[in-house]
Amino acid sequence: MTNDTTASPSAARLSVMVGLLLVTLCSWPRYQLGGYDTHSGLLVMVAVALAVVIIAYWRRMTEKQRRLLPIRLKWLAMSFVVGGVVMATWHYGIASTLAGWSTVLSHGATAGLLLHAILTGWRARR
């Protein structure tokens, strides 16, 4: 027996893909400011590819799943805020060395995406 989230593209999966795109974009300044032009170029190519996949995936979603997407994106945004606060607290409050804003942004976005993906998986199992 399959449910709606396993039979067709789901809002949960799309929100994780959008989160991955955001992590990629949030990591770009870190590499650009560090002088890693090759890495920056690769991140741009990955971001473009992810955007194409996200658009194609969204077009395949059912209307029901499209209506669920804003709720999932709100959870994603909250997860990114929590991840950013955790990483800012870590880098500026607990860690012995201060990190630049681009590192905190990159790490915060990654932590937020991990939190969102874990919570999304737990919700799907219930």
Structure description:
The structure is a single chain. The chain is mainly α and 126 residues long. The protein contains five helices and no strands. It has helices at 4-7, 11-33, 37-60, 63-94, 101-125. Helix 2 (11-33) runs antiparallel to helix 3 (37-60), helix 2 runs antiparallel to helix 5 and helix 4 (63-94) packs across helix 5. The longest helix has 32 residues, at 63-94. The chain is flat, with a radius of gyration of 16 Å. It comes from Chromohalobacter canadensis. InterPro entries: Voltage-dep_anion_channel_sf. The chain crosses the membrane at residues 12-30, 42-59, 71-92, 98-119. Keywords: Membrane, Transmembrane, Transmembrane helix.
Quaternary: single chain
**Structural class estimated from helices and strands:** mainly alpha
Q: How large is the count of helical segments? A: 5
Shape assignment: flat
Q: Tell me the span between the first and last alpha carbons.
A: 16 Å
Low-confidence stretches: none
Radius of gyration: 16 Å
Beta content: under 5%
How many strands, what sense, and barrel or not for the largest sheet?
Answer: none
- Residue-averaged pLDDT: 90
Structure summary, number of beta strands = 0
Q: How do the SSEs run, as a string of H and E? A: HHHHH
- Estimate the helix proportion, in percent: over 70%
Itemize the secondary structure elements and their pairings.
Layout: H1 4-7, H2 11-33, H3 37-60, H4 63-94, H5 101-125
Helix pairs in contact: 2-3, 2-4, 2-5, 4-5
